[in-house]
Design goal:
A 5-stranded parallel β-sheet has the order 2-1-3-4-5, with helices on both faces. Strand 3, helix 12 and strand 4 form a beta-alpha-beta unit. The chain folds into 2 domains: 3-72, Orthogonal Bundle (Arc Repressor Mutant, subunit A), CATH 1.10.10; 109-271, Glucose-6-phosphate isomerase like protein, domain 1 (Rossmann fold), CATH 3.40.50.10490. Helix content is 60%, strand content 8%. The chain is globular, with a radius of gyration of 22 Å. By secondary structure, the chain is α/β, with parallel strands linked by helices.
Length: 278
């Protein structure tokens, strides 16, 4: 449930009391009920009633929601400042970056469902049209996946600009499939494209980093991959690993077909004009 939906369950007065926690979740996520009440200028009993009024089963569930919200709303400045906590030396930060990439990969490994990947490969092969949606930095992920699915002969195209998203999604229907990739709060063009695809009856797959992302809200199924980094950007180690898994699944779903296609590809890779020869 979105923040606005949860707030709408409260009276205007209680909305104003709890609003600071949603606007600055990183500042409140570790607060106890008593500490939160003190910062919000109210009492613990009222705080608990507000939390329950927003349909959280417990205060711990509310804290988890704030944690997810802090991930979704993290800015480049937030991640840079957090990453500097262990020291400013280059060797320290370099090691911290690798360690966090490994942690992101481990999280993917533990959460990945092989059967879900196999089902997605089947859907990709039966779809009439496949559109991959992503913008800004995520456009690189979309382009990577598009390149490999084209090599497998699948009817895929990418939409990485607002105009492409609008016009390509408009033509889709129940026999088609969309994969939308966006992290944090969600890029408007990607979320709106996914929402419209869902409204058109398209089977929608999301790739994001938090359950409260609007990508998860509009997708039929969603894959979570962490992009945590000790620097100002986003680490795409885990997302790239997920895309590699999808490509491997698709390549082996119809293995004999793939090998036939790759025999034709091999000729171009050995003798094509694209490749430099000394």
């Amino acid at each position: 449930m979105s923040v606005s939906a949860r707030l709408s369950l409260l009276s205007p007065r209680r909305q104003e009391i709890i609003r600071p926690a949603f606007e600055h979740p990183r500042e409140f996520v570790l607060s106890s009920v008593r500490a939160l009440a003190e910062r919000l200028n109210t009492d613990p009993a009222t705080t608990v009633r507000i939390v329950r009024g927003m349909q959280f089963g417990s205060y711990r569930e509310f804290q988890h929601y704030l944690h997810e919200l802090s991930i979704a709303h993290a800015t480049s400045l937030d991640t840079m400042q957090t990453g500097s906590a262990r020291g400013f030396t280059i060797p320290t930060q370099a090691r911290a970056s690798v360690d966090l990439d490994l942690k992101n990969l481990e999280s993917l490994i533990h959460s990945l469902n092989p059967r879900q990947i196999a089902d997605l490969a089947r859907r990709l092969y039966t779809a009439k049209r496949i559109v991959l949606i992503g913008g800004d930095l995520a456009a690189n992920l979309v382009t990577f996946l598009e390149h490999h699915l084209i090599m497998l002969g699948l009817p895929v195209s990418s939409a990485t600009s607002p105009a492409e998203v609008v016009h390509k999604v408009r033509l889709l229907g129940k026999k088609d499939l969309v994969i939308a990739v966006s992290y944090g709060r969600g890029l408007r063009q990607t979320v709106e494209g996914l929402r419209q695809a869902r409204a058109n009856g398209v089977y929608c797959v999301g790739i994001t980093n938090t359950l409260i992302s609007p990508i998860n809200q509009f997708a039929h199924e969603c894959f979570l991959t962490s992009v945590n980094t000790p620097s100002f950007g986003a680490s795409y180690v885990a997302p790239m690993a997920l895309l590699n898994v999808i490509v491997v699944a698709c390549a082996n779903y119809k293995r004999s077909r793939t090998l036939t296609l790759l025999k034709k590809v091999e000729e171009e890779q050995r003798h094509g004009f694209r490749w430099y020869e000394s």
